[in-house]
């Protein structure tokens, strides 16, 4: 397919790198993975190509290790945006057969990895974002912002956030000390509370020339700030919604540079308005469903884009699909196993386990994608899976699987 060697900066046991590596193996794309340990999830699915191209044991945060990886590959990509951009810029000059390409570009990663900088960028480019303000990590500053923006508000870490772990929902002024002790050691900003009716996401793939193709719009459902379910295609009485969401996502992704897949998270308001919540410059949880449900998965299209190969179709190939995240409930993997056992009995269900060494409460351990011929069939298939989740209420099951 190509002689180019792809380097993946792994996230320390991440699933996105694992699914990217699995996709690369089908295309015979040579990959070198930088991740901690010899049995990181991505390394489990892709043996080293040769001794010269052995995987690297180290952290994405270690400049020396990034340099080592850069010396072995033609194209560098990331499964996490929280990387040291200065090091990426430095290694851009390292030459193997051809100059090293970094996708997405260091500019894109720099802009996106700081959520406040990302929001300022989107605002300046005319993309719709809800009201946000800078804030210092002090009680006085948060109080001043609360007066300006109103309560509730979402206090957010500018950097290193994932799965809602940098967010604090501030409902009353009396919670400010608690918020500061939870997030105060990080640079912060504040967002006006968004009373959305739905959360929507669109995966967009961007070529080296800056052309963009979007995947179908999907509905994402979060539980405790973590992505819980993803339904595709998006259902709405508003016939323009899915197209509008795709247009908002495509326009936003065009403002960045470098190739690859981007995940655009959006809020849908009661009046039909859309706001961008955040953008991830990489394959994304809301795009896992594309493996079974689209003509070309987000992972394969990410590889095609960064390798300058023709993109594959982003179209759905099934009438209805849902992705259920398997989130650790405790330090035991027992609860996950119970759900995967049920999945084995559900037609149209595909189980993905990520090979993580330890289970922890709130940790993404795997996911299940279900495909079906209709929404009704999909919900019937989803029902036993939701019922098998620890702590799931009858109400919740009915809400998503009626
Ligand atoms: P991830 O990267 O895993 O998607 P994150 O840590 O970057 O998560 P966000 O996407 O900022 O966190 O927020 C997580 C969830 O919190 C959102 O999907 C949404 O449900 C809720 N949320 C975020 N911002 C707001 C807001 N301003 N108002 C209301 N709810 C919000
Ligand atoms: Mg995020
Ligand atoms: Mg998010």
Q: How would you sum up this structure, described in words?
A:
The protein is of the alpha+beta class. The model has no long low-confidence stretch (mean pLDDT 95). Helix 1 (15-26) crosses helix 11, helix 4 packs antiparallel against helix 5 (106-113) and helix 13 packs antiparallel against helix 14 (394-401). Strands 10, 11, 12, 13, 14, 15, 16, 17 and 18 form a 9-stranded antiparallel beta sheet that branches. The longest helix is centred in the middle third of the chain and has 14 residues, at 241-254. The chain has 14 helices and 18 strands. It has helices spanning 15-26, 41-45, 63-70, 85-91, 106-113, 115-124, 139-149, 176-183, 241-254, 290-293, 298-306, 334-343, 375-387, 394-401; strands spanning 5-9, 30-35, 56-57, 75-78, 101-103, 132-135, 153-157, 167-170, 188-192, 198-206, 212-214, 218-223, 226-232, 260-268, 274-280, 320-327, 349-353, 364-372. Bound molecules: adenosine-5'-triphosphate (ATP) and magnesium ion (MG) (2 copies). The site of adenosine-5'-triphosphate has 18 residues, from strand 7 and strand 15.
């Amino acid at each position: 397919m190509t002689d180019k060697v792809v380097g993946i900066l792994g996230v320390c046991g991440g699933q996105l790198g694992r699914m990217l590596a699995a996709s690369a193996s089908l295309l015979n794309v040579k990959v070198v993975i930088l991740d901690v340990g010899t049995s990181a999830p991505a390394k489990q699915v892709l043996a080293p190509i040769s001794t010269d191209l052995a995987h690297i044991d180290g952290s994405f945060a270690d400049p020396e290790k990034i340099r080592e990886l850069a010396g072995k590959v033609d194209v560098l990509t990331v499964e996490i945006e929280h990387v040291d951009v200065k090091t990426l810029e430095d290694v851009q000059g390292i030459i193997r057969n051809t100059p090293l390409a970094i996708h997405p570009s260091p500019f894109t990663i720099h802009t996106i990895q700081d959520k406040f900088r990302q929001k300022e960028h989107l605002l300046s480019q005319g993309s719709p974002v809800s009201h946000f303000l800078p804030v210092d990590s002090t009680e006085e500053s948060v109080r001043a912002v609360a007066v300006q923006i109103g309560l509730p508000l979402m206090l957010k870490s500018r950097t290193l956030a994932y799965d809602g772990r940098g967010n604090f929902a501030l409902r009353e002024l009396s919670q400010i000390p608690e918020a500061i002790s939870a997030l105060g050691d990080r640079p912060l900003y504040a967002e006006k509370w968004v009373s959305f009716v739905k959360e929507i996401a669109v995966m967009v793939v961007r070529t080296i020339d800056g052309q963009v193709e979007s995947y179908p719009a999907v509905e994402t459902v979060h539980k405790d700030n973590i992505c819980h379910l993803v339904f595709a295609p998006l259902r709405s009485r508003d016939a323009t919604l899915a197209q509008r969401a795709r247009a908002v996502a495509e326009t936003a992704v065009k403002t960045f540079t470098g190739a690859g897949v981007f995940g655009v998270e959006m809020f849908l308001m009661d009046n039909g308005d859309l706001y961008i919540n955040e953008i991830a410059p990489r394959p994304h949880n809301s795009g896992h469903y594309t493996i079974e449900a689209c003509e070309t998965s987000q992972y394969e299209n990410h590889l095609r884009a960064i390798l300058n190969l023709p993109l594959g179709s982003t179209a759905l190939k099934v009438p209805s699909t849902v992705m259920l995240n398997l989130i650790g409930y405790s330090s035991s993997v027992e609860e996950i196993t119970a759900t995967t056992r049920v999945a084995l009995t559900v037609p149209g269900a595909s189980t993905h386990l990520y090979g993580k060494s330890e289970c922890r409460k709130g940790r993404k351990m795997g996911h299940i994608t279900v495909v079906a011929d209709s929404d009704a069939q999909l919900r019937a298939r989803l029902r036993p899976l939701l019922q098998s989740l620890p702590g799931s209420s009858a109400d919740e099951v009915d809400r998503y699987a009626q």
